[in-house]
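This section describes the prediction task in plain terms. A model, or a person checking by hand, is given the sequence of a single protein chain and must write out its three-dimensional structure as a string of tokens. No templates, partner chains or ligands are provided. The sample shown here is typical of the held-out split.
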Amino acid sequence: MAQFAVDWFGVVAPGRPVVSNFVMVDSAKCTALVERPADIGELCFFLLPRCQLPPATCAVLYFSADDGAWTVLGSLSAEKPSGIFRLPPHLGAGAAVARVGVARAPAATAANLDLVGSGASDRRGFARAIARDLMAFVTSFAAPPADVVDRWLARFDAKYARDPSFYLRPQ
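The expected answer:
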């Protein structure tokens, strides 16, 4: 198997130069700095032609503002060599600097994480995850109250404030 390498991929925010100054953290992870993260709404993550990801392996993209918690944005593979990944609106707000991280992972693991990613099918998966959360909340009542959606929205906002990626986790 080829060694995971920092020159296999790049990241670009619209209107900015390509981020390619990744530094290896360990044999399967690397990071790079991104300035002014509050100005970034989405990132384009791409594999370069020299990338040698083995079969059944993905490169997973993460984002962290001011060395806070890492948020999974999506993944790429030989079959899906590029994608546009939206950042949650609050991610990077007020931060001076952020980190983009890339980690090699088994495709089966990455498939469970790749709900926010690029394209209509990924946005559909994101919407379905939110709808599943609403459905689970509504069906938790024997007789849903009239304000069930308002209650769910309050619960959703509280969960999102604690963990913006909670809807990406299997239920």
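For orientation: DSSP finds three helices and eight strands in the chain.
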